[in-house]
Every structure is written in C-alpha cells, then in structure tokens.
Amino acid sequence: MSNSTGAPRTARSGLIHEILDGAAAAAPGATAVRDPHGPWDYARVAALSHAFARWLTEMNVGRGDRILVLASSRREIVPVLYGASRVGAVLVPLDPGLKEFQLRSIIADSRPSLAIGESEGLQAAAAEARVPTHALDKLWEAVEFFLGETAGPPEVTSADLAIMIYTSGSTAAPKGVMCPHASVVFAASAINEVLGYGSDDVVLCRLPLAFDYGLYQVLLAGLGHAEIVLSGMETDLLLMTRMRERKVTIVPVVPSLGTMLTTLARRNPGATDSVRMITNTGAALSASSIDELRDCFPHARVVRMYGITECKRVTIMPPGEESDRPESVGRPLPGTRVLILDEEGVPLPPYKSGEIAVVGRNVMAGYWQAPEQTERVYRRDASTGDVWMRTGDYGSLDDDGYLYFEGRRDDMFKRKGTRMSTVEIEAAALDIPGVRAAAVLPPANGHDLALFVESDRSPQEVLREMARRLEPAKVPGICKAVARMPLTRNGKNARDRLALMLEGGES
Fold first, then answer.
1. CA 408 – CA 283 distance, rounded (Å)
2. Averaged pLDDT for residues 461-465
3. Average pLDDT of 167-180?
4. What residue spans in the chain does CATH classification 3.30.300.30 cover?
5. How many CA atoms lie within 13 A of 328 on its CB side?
6. Cα separation of 430 and 452, whole Å?
7. In terms of CB atoms within 10 Å, which end of the chain has fewer, N or C?
8. Boundaries of each AMP-binding enzyme C-terminal domain copy (predicted)?
C-alpha cells in the first residue's frame, strides 16, 4: 500500500467554473487560450462563459442536461466547458473523427438536450434522434449577443456530474464515464500540485480536447493562470514555429507525438529551448524515446505518468526525480492511495505483481446507465466510506510506494506457458536502433504473436534483435514492417487496423 501526504488545494466549492473565476480575478489580462484565430485573455473567456451559460438558459438547458460537443480543438471549447458548468449541464466532448454509427450509439445512450458540431455524421445522427444541433460558428454569433449577461446562480453542487467521457468503442459499445465536479476539480488540483503549472507557463496542446488528457490541460492552465495554445487545427510543420513564437514551456505528449516532435526539433535547433517539461500518459514512452526527447529538449524534464479515464490520474513521477527509478511511473497523486490486489482482491506486499486499484477523490462516479459494469469496477468501503476502483491494469509497488506498470488487462496474455505483456515486447522493439514505432498483437484468431514496426530495418533483422533482448517465449513469431503506424485520434496504436492488416483485409 502507498499513501501520499497532504491534500491539494482545490476550487472554493469544488465546481469547475470556479477554476476560471479564480484565474479571471487574479489575472484578468493574462492570455488564457490561443488558437489560429488568435488569443483570448481570462477576462474574455469568463465573459464568454457567462454568455454561453445565459444562452443555455434561453435554450432551457440546465442542471443534469447533457450537451454533446463534437468539434476540433478551438478556443470556443474553453468557455463552452466553463459555461456548461455554470448552469450545471454535463459536457460530453466527442472526437470529431467518430462515425455516424458510433454517434447514434452515444446519442441513444446519453440522450442529450442539444449537440454542437458541424460533421455530417453528427447532423444525421442527431436529426434521427430529434436532438437540436448547432454549428459552432453560428452558435457563437448567438452567444456573443448575450455578452455582459449572466444566467443567475444555478442549483449545482460539487456532487453533480460535470463531464461525461466516452471510452473507446472498438470492441463494444462506448461507455460513458461519469465525472462529477468534485472528482474533476480534485484530480486537476492534485495533478497541478505535483506538476506546478504557473503564470509563466505556455502549454502547447496538440491533443484533441475530446481526449481527457487534452481537456485537463485547460483546467491545469486555469489553475496555474497559464496560457494554453491549441494547435490541433494546424499542420505538423507549424509546431516548432508555435514553440518559438509563444516560448512554449510545457508539452503534453503521447508516444506518436513525442516521436514527431523529436524529428521536427532536429530540423529546428533552438525552437525547443524554452520547454521546461514534457508530460506523458495515454501510452508509455519507451526509454529510447525519452532519451531522444531529452536530447532534443535540453532544458526539459520528461515526466512519466499513469492514469485511466475512470479516475483520471493514478501516479506521477515527480519532475525532480525523472532520472530515478527509470522503470517506474511514479507515486500516487496527493491525497490518494494505490493498492496492488491478488485475484481474490486481497492487497499484496511490495514487489508482488497484481491488479492496480486506486482509492481517493479522483475516482469517478461509474459508468452512465450501466450499474452492473459500475459495480464490477467501483467499490465503497463500508467502514471508511472511501471510494476505490479496480483498474484492470497490472503492476507492483516498491517499498517507497512507487508504481511499476506492467500492462493493461487486454495487454496481458500467456504464450508457451509464459505470462507476458504487449508493453514489454513493444519496449524491446523500440530499443532497437532504427525502429521508430512498434505495436504488438497477442496470439489470437489462428495467428501467432505478431509485431508491427515502423522501421527501415527488415523484419528478419528486427526479430534477430528481439531475440537478443527477450527470452525465447516472448520473441514474436511474426514481424511486419509498415511505412507508417496506424494511430487512433488520441495518438495510440490502432490495433484494430493492424489486426485487419494481419488478416489481409487492409494494406
């Protein structure tokens, strides 16, 4: 068991919009958000959030009503987030890449009061369900009509839902993770207590705001009175230009983005000098990728983190300890605990592998309209009142409470009698010089353990190198080279597409 000490400072009543109000009161003229259309300061974002809240009131949208938002990462999403909070509505951020089939499923499940977005799929799915839909540009003209007005104090509490984030639906219908104000504000505040976003920081956010890693950058910037630069609408080639122009200090990355940044940084020496911190979650960076980032961003600490949507963040390696315990993903958030459980749910001692469980106020409220799934994952300790959850992921703790992540439930499998994880096999592949990206598919559907690599080296060379790094049972039986690794919108390996390639259904 690991305990962190203390509890993070949070918004006054645990409501999301109080993060913005605190920033607007302390630094009204500081830049809050910037996109290709320009900057807005905190005073402007606060005014627009009030105007959006007033517009929602006119639309009879209020406490508990769901609002779907399917749009690219634009500055308007920031006051939409805070404005929905003001009236107690529940923001449901969606990936602009979702197909009409997926949107129909989410709309049927969430039963929204309105939808915001321009995609034809959203328009069709919402019309079929008779959900009013508003294009963001036209909506914003209406919102600005209410500038200077407020919606009045809502009857919203910190226990009310603020956000609902739908998990991937690649293998089943998407599940909506219910995120109350209190849990979101606590998680953001605890993360910031460790990472220390401040008023001198400029955050380059390439991540979609539909991805909770991206969305929380807005909250972290607000807590630190920092500037967030939304670059998702721009081409990759402009990233270094934005870093140089805005003197970017913080960059959150997933592995694919980290690889791209190192490539661009080598072509743009000096553009990275202002970066003080690179954070990573979503999928772990390999040791070689971390080394390359340190080489290309000489003044930056590379901060490893681990988390899942159901509790936002589990652990963070403190920035000052980035070179210590290189295999670890850090310590639990302030005010939380991490347990390692055996198959019977009994806590295990240090260095024993088992399922990772989390205890604390960062634990969300379960899955929307799915009580059986919620009961399988979430628990409340009757004696202490603590809420805890089983992550379905595996790892171990050391004597000092640092977590060592071994793999997600779907990553763990047995081959030739040996238990292994896709994570360790991918890490071995990424250690091979010349391998830029790697993804592993466990044995299934008649195929052996398969490795896909983005590399100039031949599959035979890669397998020979794998045999030098892993015991025989863990060396893949299949290796295929791809020109470019297929990725999800969140920058993770698209294993469904790789499976199709393996079966010959896609090239």
1. 10
2. 95
3. 74
4. 416-502
5. 23
6. 11
7. C
8. 424-492
Q: In this structure, what DSSP letter does residue 337 have?
A: E
Q: What is the CA radius of gyration of the chain?
A: 23
Instruction: Tell me what the pLDDT averaged over the chain comes to.
Output: 90
Is the CB of residue 363 less than 8 Å from the CB of residue 385? no
H/E run at residue 140:
helix 136-144
| CATH number for region 2-393 | 3.40.50.12780
pLDDT at 5 over 80: no
Query: In the predicted model, is pLDDT for residue 191 greater than 90?
Result: yes
Amino acid at 429: A
Does the structure show a pLDDT above 50 at 2?
A: no
| Tokens encoding 187 | 């998680």
pLDDT tens string 41-56: 999 999 999 999 999 9
Burial 372-405 (b: 16+ CB within 10 A, else e): eebeebbbeeeeeeebbbbbbbbbbbeeebbbbb
- Is there a contact between 66 and 94 (Cβ–Cβ < 8 Å)? no
Among 81, 80, 125, 85, residue whose Cα is nearest residue 102? 125
Which residue in this structure is represented by tokens 């009142």? 385
How far is 342 from 4, CA to CA, in rounded Å? 22
Which tens digits make up the pLDDT trace of 279-318?
998 777 888 889 999 999 999 999 999 999 999 999 999 9
pLDDT of residue 473 exceeding 80, the answer is: yes
Vertex 436: Cα angle to 430 and 439 (nearest 5): 60
Distance CA 15, CA 86 (A): 8
Can you tell me the distance from the alpha carbon of 55 to that of 72, in angstroms, rounded to the nearest whole number?
Answer: 21
C-beta separation of 114 from 133 below 8 A: yes
Q: CA-CA distance, 198 to 119, in Å (whole number)?
A: 36
Ordered DSSP codes for 5-74: -S-----TTS-THHHHHHHHHH-TTSEEEEETTEEEEHHHHHHHHHHHHHHHHHTT--TT-EEEEE--S-
Split at pLDDT 50, 70, 90, the class of 255 is confident
Tell me the Ramachandran region of residue 159: left when phi exceeds 0, alpha when psi lies from -120 to 50, beta otherwise. alpha
Q: How far is CA 318 from the centre of its chain?
A: 19
Token pair of 469, please?
């790094």
pTM, to two decimals: 0.85
Sign of the CA dihedral running 115, 119, 120, 121: negative
Q: Which CATH architecture has domain 416-502?
A: 2-Layer Sandwich (3.30)
